[in-house]
Amino acid sequence: MELENLWEQNKVPVILGLIGVFLVSVGILTTLFFYQQKEPEIEIISGEEEGTIWVDLAGAVIQPGVYELPSGSRYKDLLARAGGLSAGADREWIEKNLNLAQKLEDAQKVYIPSQMESGEVAGEETVVSGKININTASTSELDTLWGIGEVRAKDIIDNRPYSSIDELLTKKVIPSNVFEKIKDEITVF
């Protein structure tokens, strides 16, 4: 009797409590179901932010060689890693032609000329081993290349320095068809 009285007095709160527990359980199960169905988020990490690059440094530096550097390293980082410039380095050439804040690329070759070489590398003689140096050539020398006229020669000069001939394309100085015709006739060293 007492149990029946207790049930009659508390029937509504007990039923509402059971309905509440049921609804909370359905909510939890629904959330878990949709959470499992959701595709995992994939974080793409750019190779430039993490990883390493390899750069070949030669010429008038204290320790020339191939260096492993963190991606995003700059010319100044490479020179510091090599112990700096040697006493014979052509500092005037470096000031004019090398952007120490420029980022390096994987498999890049960097050459630092000495003062003794500066006549060949950065002086009047811009043709080295039969190739025209795009970092030092005059407008008239560049004009001798296929597809290069005064306007393109001026664009090449205005976008100096170049660490590789491929920068003519990446800096959008010349079209790819002209680059393909002249790539064997030009150099940056």
Structural write-up:
Strand 1 and strand 2 (65-70) form a beta hairpin. It is built from 8 helices and 6 strands; from the N terminus they run αββααβαββααααβ. The chain has a 3-stranded mixed beta sheet with strand order 2-1-3, covered by helices on one side. 41% of the residues lie in helices and 14% in strands. The protein has helices spanning 2-37, 75-81, 91-97, 118-121, 139-142, 150-158, 167-170, 176-182; strands spanning 52-59, 65-70, 108-112, 127-128, 131-133, 186-187. Residues 120-128 have low confidence and may be disordered. It has 189 residues and is α/β, with parallel strands linked by helices. The chain folds into 2 domains: 48-123, Ubiquitin-like (UB roll); 124-189, DNA polymerase, domain 1, CATH 1.10.150.320. It is elongated.
β-sheet strand percentage: 5-15%
Mean pLDDT: 82
**Domain tally:** 2
Helix content: 40-55%
- Beginning-to-end CA distance, first to last residue: 106 Å
CATH class of the largest domain: Alpha Beta
- Helix/strand order, N-terminal first: HEEHHEHEEHHHHE
Task: For this entry, give a set of tags.
DNA polymerase, domain 1, 189 residues, 3-stranded mixed β-sheet, Ubiquitin-like (UB roll), 8 helices, 2 domains
Helices and strands, with pairings:
Layout: H1 2-37, E1 52-59, E2 65-70, H2 75-81, H3 91-97, E3 108-112, H4 118-121, E4 127-128, E5 131-133, H5 139-142, H6 150-158, H7 167-170, H8 176-182, E6 186-187
Parallel strand pairs: 1-3, 5-6
Antiparallel strand pairs: 1-2, 4-5
